[in-house]
Amino acid sequence: MLDRARGCSVGAAVGDALGMPLEFGPRSPPGAFVREMTAGRLPAGTFTDDTELALALAESLLANRPLDPADLANRFVAWYRASPSDVGLQIAAVLSDIISGSTWKDAARIAYRNRPNSAGNGSVMRCWPVALADWDDLGELVADSRVQSMVTHWHPECVAASAFVNVLIYHLLRGASAVEAVDKAAHAVEMPEPLAVTIKAASNRHRKELMNTGWVRHTLESAIWGLLTTDSFEEAVVQVVNLGNDTDTAGAVVGALAGAAYGLNAIPLRWQEAVQGEWPVGSRARCTVVELARVADRLLSRG
Fold this sequence. Notes:
Elements: H1 2-19, H2 49-63, H3 69-81, H4 89-99, H5 104-114, H6 128-133, H7 138-150, H8 156-173, H9 178-188, H10 193-201, H11 216-228, H12 233-241, H13 247-262, H14 269-274, E1 277-278, E2 286-287, H15 289-302
Antiparallel strand pairs: 1-2
């Protein structure tokens, strides 16, 4: 379980960093897939806001059990004030309202009311620390997964997708096959019917059909497709980040899932050595695979 938990933490950052230079680009043609860390808007191997927000969530989970949404919102605000390299529109709107004096709940509700059809992937991209912190309590895992989403993403599909991903990781950590884990999570989590249909059909989709946009439904579709149609960490992540569009977020999600499925030792060493970022943002402190694995260790110890 320890190796799988470390794989989840490191895998999410690796997928994020591998997808970073491909973000909003076209789908890569077969035979021309990107398989190495390359520079984009950030230096090669650098993780983005997907991992930064996950680390903020991890710190909040380590400080509170169950998860305290007010504490989490304050940590997100501190991250936002530090001028990160990228901030999603939904997250920026919510955090700006909090800075202006709104409570986290009011800010999130207002954002949902103003954009009721917006179901972005900003909460599912960061949700994996909950699965590690609550590895010993499935009920608390589902509750914390839902709460962490609602701090910025109130849409029912965002909330349900976060719970689904973490229940999936819960079963992968225990050695369930990818197919078995997806099935168990799909039956355990209540979700809107369109999201359930997407999950069920994901593995049968053709690569050309995967849109891989910032819509949470598309991100989940891509990640599950990558997990279920490959047989290694490397292939799962490579296939997904080369779909184009929102590549870093889809990479982060499939990286967390594949890392939990195959473990840290299955992640190519060249990627482990390359991945890095700054945490906390603005601190000039370098976060590498060592620190990312330590985050997993600490989260497991919380349980």
